[in-house]
Amino acid sequence: MSMLRTGSIIILFIALLSFSCGGKKIEPNQSAEALYQTAMTELKKKDGFPYIFRGTDYDQVFKLLKEIQLRDTYSPYATLAELRTADAYFKKEEYTQAAIEYEQFLKNHPAHSETPYATYRLALSHYMQKRSPDRDPTNTREALKWLSFFVDKYPDSPLVGEAEKKIARCRKILAEREMYIGRFYEKRKNHKAAAERFKVVVNDYSNTNRLEEALFLLGESYLNAGEMELAKEALQRVVHEFPNAKYHNKASDLLSEIEKKGKKEAKKI
Asked: How many whole angstroms separate alpha carbon 236 and alpha carbon 190?
């Protein structure tokens, strides 16, 4: 390819990029409805590669929505512009800012017809930022809080099924986090701190698949800490509630060990 042809392609690319990023001029006589519809048409475009040919012009969307709010502050379209600003951030995958915008919309318009939608999207904004069990749990907890609120507040919503699946996923992550920290403490012989973490799983996340393991490790931690009665209570639950599961035999062995220790202590007295 000649240098001249290469240079022409680069110039064309820069020109197209400038054209695509420039946005369209907003006419002063356009109504709030017209501005809103223009913004929605742009927002509904599918993003893809190459971006400059067929992506959403987010700068233009934000400009239009802001213009509506400035021109027609008290119109229904100004209220909708607040919500669509959050949608634009969400579509752009800027979930932190999307969450801020959705929450602000809920504070400003608690009785609006779009409140259920905004609540779910707020939850989803946090859900999209959830981390692995060994990372910061803030967004996972916020997602769980808002998803639970959504299910309780809008039980007839068609989104409840999806919300419940996400709730289960958040609870699983948070349970695994407590288990992760509990094991960390146990490895460092901090048995009481470990027990406190395993107890959180038993008390708060009993409907996850971590209950049996949490009960066993709780009993083991209590045993290592010298809390025999508490250890027995936890281990007996494993034996009775999980008769055919992974930790049943291990729990039985520890209970036998506790019983032997008890008999030895009794003989000394």
From this structure: 23
